[in-house]
Amino acid sequence: TPRTVTLKEAYWFFLPLIFMSNMMMISHSIIHGFLARLPEPKVTLAAYNVAFSFHSVAGSPVWTAVMTALAFLSDRRSVIQLAKFNLLIAAIVSAFGWTLGLTPLGDWLFNGLMGASPEVAHDAKRAVLILMVIPPVTILRAISYALLMRNRLTLLITIGTFLRLLSLAVYLLVLPVFLHGASVGAAALLLCIATESIFAANLAHRLYFALPADGGGTRSSFRDIWRFAWPLMLVQASENGVAFTINFFLGRLAKPDLALAAFGVMDGLGKLLLSPLRNLTQTAQTLVRTREELRTIVRFAAQVVAVFSALVALFYVPHVRLWALERVLGLTPEIAGAIAPALLLFVVLAGVLGFSALSRGLLLGARTTGPIARAAIVRIVVVV
Question: Cα(105)–Cα(127) distance, rounded to whole angstroms?
Answer without folding.
Answer: 15
